[in-house]
Amino acid sequence: MKILFLGDNNSPLIGYLRNLGDEVRVETEPLVVKTLREYDPDWIISYGYRHILKKEILGLYPERYINLHIAYLPWNRGADPNLWSWVEDTPKGVTIHYIDSGVDTGDIITQKEVIFTGKETLASSYAKLRTAMDNLFREIWPQIRAGATPRQKQIGVGSCHRVADRAKVEHLLTAGWKTRVKNLRSVNTN
Predict the structure, then answer these.
(1) Contact 106, 64 (CB under 8 A)
(2) What distance in Å separates the CA atoms of residue 71 and residue 79, rounded to the nearest whole number?
(3) Domain containing 18: what range?
(4) Is there a single domain that holds both residue 162 and residue 102?
(5) How far is it, in rounded angstroms, from Cα 164 to Cα 159?
(6) Domain count, the chain
(7) What angle do CA 12, 135, 23 make, to 5 degrees?
(8) What pLDDT digit, counting tens, does each position of 90-120 carry?
(9) Same domain, 45 and 80
(10) How far is Cα 35 from Cα 4, in angstroms, rounded to an integer?
């Protein structure tokens, strides 16, 4: 199977896919039609990818795009989901979903809530979410690959943030990403 992996070229999931016998090409730059057509992937997996996929790209391979998002959707769509889950005290977790033309609004394949003690830092909670995502992906990938996964519409309004929104709360990151999460809970960002 040919997989186009969009995002971190150091992800352990790349090795996992290759060990299963999949051919994996990694892209970190904005995806263009020519690249997609030349590679002709069976699946496109986005994980930590920093670029929005345009409608012309999404139209080429409908139902083959999935995203691995370190948020419990519909909460914390978009940028910095770990940060916002602490600042706004929303559910924390990981979600694998189909990609549609919205920002993290596609149908959910599977998700898992992740429970924290509150003793974590932003960095350690991020690492825990990444581990939970990697494990969830390994569990569900055989079903995704076989085209045998459920689809569930996202329920509720949730929340969405842009990269620019971080400026509202950067003053709270007194130790950068090593800031303890208990110092960020339920802070008014208006």
Answers:
(1) no
(2) 10
(3) 1-62
(4) yes
(5) 15
(6) 2
(7) 45
(8) 999 999 999 999 999 999 999 999 999 879 9
(9) no
(10) 10
